[in-house]
Amino acid sequence: MKKILIIEDNISMRDELVKLLENNGYICYVSNGNDYEDILLNNDVNLILLDINLPNANGFEICNGIKSRKNIPIIIITGRVSDIDEITGISLGADDYIKKPYHSGVLLARIKRILEHKTDDSVKTYKDVSLNIRTNTVQYNGEEVFLTYTETLILAYLLDSPKAIVSRIELIEYLWDNQNFVDDNTLSVNIS
């Protein structure tokens, strides 16, 4: 069974999501934004449903923080309907952005799509380099280093083409296709 973490401070919304998801075969964990790190540390979560407006936390910061350390799909579910909020969420690594009120069938379809497309091939290796996409870590000579979400995407793309020359344009297009909006300068920083 797939496990979903719901980070939502509105109790009735949280209860509604738990009921919907459990009735469709998912295991749910809930957080109001304060204890989500403990839940992620102690459980193998497959997907996160994240609200932006939380009383003691910023959903955008939570999204960015999780995506910089782990490769867990995140769907933002929020009442914030401006295009700039949606662009911000997606650019920080969210896999989808759903505006409240949402249709439960649409939400379930998007969850299913994301979970089905999430690769189980979470470790890529080439010679002595090993990249764990799930944990955003790279190992070389017994040392492990944490990468950002964007760095992980770049290295994964390069490891998929170990003997090919990959152009900057190819990388930028790949990152854009993966909803990680970068320009040439951002790419340079991440490569460095």
Describe, in plain words, how this protein is organized in 3D.
Strand 3 (47-50), helix 3 and strand 4 (74-78) form a beta-alpha-beta unit. The protein has 2 domains: 3-117, 3-Layer(aba) Sandwich (Rossmann fold), CATH 3.40.50.2300; 123-191, Winged helix-like DNA-binding domain superfamily/Winged helix DNA-binding domain (Arc Repressor Mutant, subunit A). The protein is globular and about 50 Å long. The model has no long low-confidence stretch (mean pLDDT 86). Strands 2-1-3-4-5 form a 5-stranded parallel beta sheet, with helices on both faces. It has a 4-stranded antiparallel beta sheet with strand order 6-7-8-9, covered by helices on one side. The chain has helices at 11-23, 36-42, 59-69, 83-91, 104-117, 149-160, 168-177, 184-191; strands at 3-7, 27-31, 47-50, 74-78, 96-99, 123-126, 129-132, 137-140, 143-146. The chain has 192 residues and is an alpha/beta fold.
Write a concise synopsis of the structure shown.
This protein has helices at about 10-25, 35-40, 60-70, 85-90, 105-115, 150-160, 170-175, 185-190; strands at about 5, 25-30, 45-50, 75-80, 95-100, 125, 130, 135-140, 145. It has about 190 residues and is an alpha/beta fold.
